[in-house]
Amino acid sequence: MHFPTIEDYVGHTPLVRLQRLPGNTTNTILCKLEGNNPAGSVKDRPALSMIQEAERRGMIKPGDTLIEATSGNTGIALAMAAAIKGYRMVLIMPDNMSQERRDAMTAYGAEIISVSREQGMEYARDLASQMQQQGQGIVLDQFANFDNPLAHYKGTGPEIWQQTEGRITHFVSSMGTTGTIMGTSRFLKEQNAAIQIVGLQPQEGSSIPGIRRWPEAYLPKIFEPQRVDQIVDVTQAEAEQTMRRLAREEGIFCGVSSGGAVAGALRLSQQLEHAVIVCIICDRGDRYLSTGVFNSQS
């Protein structure tokens, strides 16, 4: 008898219907619960994909050192994937990321290099490539690695298509590396070109973990603008408030970027009828508890 290993349980996440937040509407809003992945986020998919595909090409082998700049979830997912596969993992991240995230990475055996909040992800990415040039390890580079969206083209997209029995009309996803929206969009549009793809970014001045407004020079190389039909700005307050409502009114305990995606889906729903809107719940809320973001009453 063949028993599965933990990597066999990456993906195949539930799709659930919101019951209260949408209000009185003819639309159906569905949430893909990516926090159900083994390391707790949607990033388990690309983390495993990038390592598996690099192995397949002979670029890396167990025992090698991998380096990645990350703001959180990818780092946790890569730390898990490296532990499964037998790699040394070095993660570079801004020092304003939540303690739970740092603790999860070190629990999986990863080493962390901190950069300041002011230096941010841009500097973390530059430092990763410097270290690679100095021969200190191999950068998988989630921002430019097409094995990132490939995970969603092969997994997330087909799962959503099957779970909605092809009835999906709109797909809403927060945009960070943009891997989720790129790969899922490509698959869904191949099935039905009329499906609308909506990307979420933070409004100017808002700080939402996991989603970004990238300066032009740092736009992820995997991002193809033609794959997104509409980009919606979401405020930090709106994302946080929706996140708290999801926990209190739907029993869905998730992070801030997921609150942003659902806020975008709810806004979209007000303009539509008889739509089937799918949004991505990127991760679980427990990795944000120390930030106090759940304590507000709004």
UniProtKB/TrEMBL annotation:
The reaction(s) this protein catalyses: O-acetyl-L-serine + hydrogen sulfide = L-cysteine + acetate
Q: In which pathway does it act?
A: Amino-acid biosynthesis; L-cysteine biosynthesis; L-cysteine from L-serine: step 2/2
The UniProt record lists the keyword Secreted: no
What Gene3D superfamilies does the record point to?
3.40.50.1100
* The UniProt record lists the keyword Hydrolase: no
Q: Which UniProt keywords apply?
A: Amino-acid biosynthesis, Cysteine biosynthesis, Pyridoxal phosphate, Transferase
| Record-linked InterPro entries | Cys_synth (IPR005856), Cys_Synth/Cystath_Beta-Synth (IPR050214), CysM (IPR005858), P-phosphate_BS (IPR001216), TrpB-like_PALP (IPR001926), TrpB-like_PALP_sf (IPR036052)
**Domain Tryptophan synthase beta chain-like PALP: residue ranges:** 6-283
Q: What is its EC number?
A: 2.5.1.47
Q: Which Pfam families match?
A: PALP
Q: Where is the signal peptide?
A: none
Q: Which prosthetic group or cofactor does it need?
A: pyridoxal 5'-phosphate
Q: Which family does it belong to?
A: Belongs to the cysteine synthase/cystathionine beta-synthase family.
PANTHER family named in the record: CYSTATHIONINE BETA-SYNTHASE
Q: What is this protein called?
A: Cysteine synthase
What organism is recorded for this protein?
Answer: Pokkaliibacter plantistimulans
